[in-house]
Amino acid sequence: PTFVFDECDAGVGGAAALDVGARLAALAAHAQVVVVTHLPQVAAYADRHLVVRKASDGHITSSGVHALDEDERLRELARMRPASHAAQAAYLEVLLLEGRQLIDRGKWEEARDLLAPHARAAAEPIPGSVAPKPTHIALLNMLGCCACMLQDFDHAVSYFTAALNKVGNDAWLHQNLALSYEWLDKIDKAEAHWDHYFTLIN
To answer: What is the pTM of this model?
Structure first.
């Protein structure tokens, strides 16, 4: 069977939108589900992401559907996020909560797909006088853990390094980097991070 939901999430946001996305994803395990949505919390659960685009030459307006590849999907999910800083901060906290719940259930790939669209913004350098946002550090660390569990250690190093650059020095991030470099057989780099780790915990 095929189910079509046209903006069934209207008037919904935050954690409730994530719950809608999760329920639609559960339904999609047994049927084909087509969802029209403007919410990234819902779109993030999709197996395939389509974008409807309008074009006009001044006389005729036409619409078309474009199937996104993985890179395009991540950019589109990032574009769909809320506009105001306050809304973005609240939205990110909700995503982290959902990501943690997925990780606790061992759904590492789903957690990665949920959080990855926001990695670039979280990793952006900040002025020296501005304190790093804990949510950005948490997101990068969670993505690094997901990458490790999926044996994608190059990405794990990238995420953990971005988090460490923001926080300055952290024993557990040094430990995560040491372990990731060991899996990549880069022993010299692993030992350097182990040295930092043991210095910080002693």
So the answer is: 0.62
